[in-house]
Design a protein that fits this description.
The protein is an alpha/beta fold and about 475 residues long. The chain is about 55% helix and about 10% strand. The protein has 20 helices and ten strands. Bound molecules: adenosine-5'-diphosphate and magnesium ion (MG).
Length: about 475
């Protein structure tokens, strides 16, 4: 199936019409040309999150969701786009970037059928594309509650959600294969993956398997020694149309047969254009103890990360959950929860459910006071998962006579930058956390920053044996400290 891209037009005031139209037209034309040049996949990777914002004398301002996008899009395409704009408009137009919430500018749709609307930030439920086929029994692996309608989109997940939607439009393995969704716990990986399954199950006759890597392993182990069972296992996974495999980081500790079997399953499905979706708590390149040939398969299609939702999105999620439960939650309570629980959606949901259950049982109205009282432990507790990175930061800060906040913060003085890089490097070396998670602990930095820091320190250690020795010493201190606490 062909995928075509069309751009959202921005409504403007009448009097601006002539000029606005020209600039937007130039931009649209330049985008079309670049799409031709770099192909749809790379295009969507970088331009899905770039929005036309405004213009002033020969400057076009584009919105991008983060520093990371700004730097990457700038480095990769700014010159190229400016050259194209010059050829199209016969004017010197400069491109500038502005960071802020961006509504994806791209819709991907089939030529023949009307697809589901692309999800936009906090939009209303999406109508289904095609009428639901004859009522089927519930799919044995899928939970109906995980669908696109109740998935709230923010900057943190819109790329992932749109990639997932693209697959529901083109489930023939040509859109993004495999789709590799990664990110920390409770950020919506399972929800999105199952939403793909639910949508396709309701609207197509495709055979769909959803499984966790752990379940895959268990089934394999159960079948070993029984030839018939082993064959049945192989056939089940190799003759499906869509394979959704959750939490493949689980395979890290399980060498051998499972990885081997997954490798063959992957090849069979991939070669016959069957859609595959993997989720993982970290990027493929950071999976440990998994053979290179499997890792390279994970990364063959499109990898997209989910990061924690921002404040606005957290509020939107809670509002949506309250509506679904028909619960009346005052705005100030929603604000209180959203402000205090920023780690992930699962924690946010947990606190919310606790609160509703309490109010229900105690027959009380939900107010800020009630919420503060009931959730004080949750608000106060540091994230358990970040404990070891916290200790690393503490020990390194003490050693360099800095504060923990210096290391987490944004200050760029040389005195702080190197210890901060060391702290990231050690965190990456001695904990199981992914660079995405480490980045979050260090003041919400991007995983590429963590990777960059690790590389810098590795380089420095090679050049300077003294640094190497002092890092060894610091690791020793951290281990001692951890053992005591
Ligand atoms: P993960 O698989 O990444 O650990 P889940 O998909 O299990 O996370 O999400 C945790 C919980 O948060 C689920 O109940 C899910 O429905 C909910 N959730 C996550 N992201 C969103 C979102 N953007 N909108 C609505 N609910 C969400
Ligand atoms: Mg999950």
């Amino acid at each position: 199936m062909m995928v075509i891209v069309d751009f959202l037009w921005i409504t403007r005031k009448e009097e601006d019409y002539m000029v606005e139209l020209n600039y937007e037209f130039f931009w649209k034309e330049a985008l079309n040309q670049i799409l031709e040049e770099i192909g749809e996949q790379e295009f969507n990777r970088w331009f899905a999150m770039v929005g036309y914002r405004s213009h002033s004398d020969n400057i076009i301002t584009l919105g991008v969701p983060s520093n990371f996008y700004r730097e990457e899009v700038k480095r990769r395409y700014k010159n190229n786009l400016e050259v194209k704009l010059k050829l199209i408009s016969d004017q010197d137009i400069t491109i500038e970037f502005e960071i802020g919430a961006v509504t994806p500018q791209i819709k991907i749709k089939e030529e023949t059928e009307k697809p589901a609307e692309p999800l936009e930030k906090t939009t209303e439920p999406t109508p289904a594309a095609k009428p639901v086929k004859d009522k089927k029994p519930p799919h044995p692996h899928l939970r109906l509650g995980y669908n696109f309608d109740n998935f709230v989109i923010g900057v943190n997940n819109s790329f992932a959600a749109n990639a997932a939607l693209a697959i529901t439009k083109n489930p023939d393995g040509t859109a993004y294969n495999p789709l590799f969704l990664y990110g920390g716990v409770g950020l919506g990986k399972t929800h999105l993956t199952q939403a793909i399954g639910n949508y396709l199950y309701a609207h197509t006759d495709l055979k769909i398997i959803y499984t966790s890597a752990e379940n895959f392993l268990n089934e394999l182990v159960d079948s070993i020694g029984d030839k018939k069972a082993t064959n049945a296992f192989k056939n089940k996974y190799r003759y499906t149309d869509v394979l959704l495999m959750d939490d493949i980081h689980f395979l890290q500790g399980n060498k051998g047969a499972t990885q081997e079997e997954l490798f063959h399953t992957f090849n069979t499905l991939y070669d016959s254009n069957k859609q595959i979706v993997f989720t993982s708590d970290r990027p493929a390149s950071e999976l440990k103890h998994i053979p290179e040939r499997l890792i390279s398969r994970f990364g063959r299609g499109l990898s997209v990360d989910l990061s924690p939702p921002d404040y606005e999105t957290r509020c939107a999620i809670l509002k949506r959950k309250a509506e679904a439960k028909k619960a009346v939650i005052p705005d100030d309570v929603i604000a209180l929860l959203s402000k205090n629980i920023s780690s992930n959606v699962r924690d946010l949901e947990g606190a919310f459910t606790t609160l509703i259950a309490y109010a229900d049982l105690a027959g009380k109205e939900i107010t800020v006071e009630v919420a503060q009282q009931q959730l004080k432990d949750i608000f106060a507790s540091p994230k358990q998962a970040n404990m070891s990175v916290d200790i690393i930061i503490k020990v390194i800060a003490e050693h360099y006579q800095l504060s923990s906040n210096d290391l987490r913060g944004k200050k760029r003085s040389q005195k702080i930058v190197v210890p901060r890089q060391i702290a990231m490097f050690i965190s990456h070396e001695i904990t199981e956390f992914s660079t995405t998670e480490i980045g979050q602990t260090f003041g919400g930095r991007d995983h590429t920053t963590v990777m960059h820091s690790c590389n810098k320190i590795k380089e420095k250690m090679q050049a300077d044996p003294k640094l190497d020795a002092s890092i060894q010493k610091l690791v020793g201190l951290i281990k001692e400290y951890t053992a005591k606490s």
